[in-house]
Design brief:
Residues 259-349 form the 2Fe-2S ferredoxin-type domain. By secondary structure, the chain is an alpha/beta fold. Helices cover 20% and strands 35% of the residues. It is built from eight helices and 19 strands. The strands form four sheets. A six-stranded antiparallel β-sheet has the order 4-3-6-1-2-5, covered by helices on one side. β3 and β4 form a beta hairpin.
Length: 349
């Protein structure tokens, strides 16, 4: 389940002065491994200056395209994002894990009205979702609210224009720029007033089936809360964070003692002893057990496992539903063991 595959870069396309799109050449014998649902991400593993890095990037291409393309924005002080923007070239080889993620649109033939709120590089999975929604049914509509500092920093701007030209009466985009005033765009950031303008004014006659939110944590919660205040049911609001605020691990302060842990991954069982103040994934990786992981920050879903014996508590959880937690699922990168023994199963998720 945590297997990586060496894939060749077939294209490197500049999106903005600070972002690129990388397209991977997936050989025929790996096609089935890299089938994906709109909105999913891949994890890239690469060594930069001798350090192994794992980074999760959303797929921007639609499943129907037959391509696996990700958009990567250069992060000031970043490591892999800088490397991807400045050094990666066609023909290079990167290790890639098959697609994963729950922030998805399942293609079907039903008519859907979908809206999305994206900021910065949060547009990446939305590109795949928007194309898939529009392809699925000739009457489906998609409304996109896209926030950036300036138009020159807006990723996939040309691709969005192509969607507008192709689906003139079904794809609608509202740009916002926080550092420039531009024609046909609002000035500022995505906030409560923006959401109200879209759902209560500009598209007040549209009944939306789903809302997709992707961006920084503050924006996600502002949009989500406003939608709920407008009567949108919680299960119609899907979100994915590309960054998450740091949460103080106060839970660890109250934990003492050791836990005997049994780990099932890829049909192999491993045993280890860990301090309860440690996070489960950290302890597993110290033993060189090849458990799946990517962000290690509770943002992606790569490290989900099922507790089959014992108890653990998460420092934070922005991925799993209450029902899934009740069923025993945990984000191992956020979980502390609470019991003397703990069994976790990475295979049964």
């Amino acid at each position: 389940m945590s297997d990586f595959h060496a894939l060749k870069i077939s294209a490197v396309d500049a999106l903005t002065p600070n972002s690129v799109a990388l397209t991977f050449d997936v050989p025929q014998d790996l096609k089935s491994f890299f089938d994906f649902t709109a909105g999913q991400y891949i994890t890239i593993r690469h060594k930069v200056n001798g350090e192994e890095l794992r980074r999760a990037y959303s797929i921007s291409s639609a499943p129907s395209s037959g391509k696996v393309t990700v958009g990567i924005k250069k992060v000031p002080g970043g490591t892999f994002s800088v490397y991807a923007n400045e050094s990666v070239k066609p023909g290079d080889i990167l290790d890639v894990m098959p697609p994963d993620g729950r922030f998805v649109f399942e293609k079907n033939s039903e008519r859907k009205n979908v809206a999305a709120f994206a900021a910065g590089s949060g547009i990446t999975p939305i590109m795949s979702i928007a194309q898939t929604v529009l392809e699925s049914n000739p009457e489906s509509t998609f409304v996109l609210v896209f926030g950036n500092q300036t138009s020159s920093e807006a990723m996939y701007l040309n691709d969005l224009q192509e969607l507008s030209d192709k689906y003139t009466d079904r794809f609608f985009i509202q740009h916002l720029y926080s550092r420039s005033r531009e024609e046909n765009a609002l000035f500022g950031r995505i906030e409560t007033s923006t959401v109200n303008f879209i759902v209560k004014n500009k598209f007040k006659t549209t009944v939306f089936d789903a809302f997709y939110l992707c961006g920084p944590e503050e924006m996600i919660y502002a949009v989500s809360d406003t939608l709920k205040n407008n009567g949108v049911p919680e299960n119609a609001i899907l979100f994915e964070l590309f960054t998450s605020s740091d949460t103080e691990d106060t839970l660890a302060e109250d934990l003492d003692g050791k836990t005997q842990v049994e780990v099932l991954v890829d049909d192999e069982t491993f045993s280890l002893t860990m301090d309860k103040k440690e996070l489960v994934l950290d302890a597993i990786l110290k033993e060189n057990i090849d458990a799946p992981y990517s962000c290690q920050g509770g943002v992606c879903s790569s490290c989900i496992a099922r507790i089959t014996e014992g108890k653990a508590e998460m420092v934070k959880n922005q991925i799993l539903t209450d029902g899934e937690v009740t069923e025993g699922l945990i984000l191992t990168c956020q979980a502390h063991p609470l019991t003397p023994t703990l069994k976790v199963d990475y295979d049964d998720v």
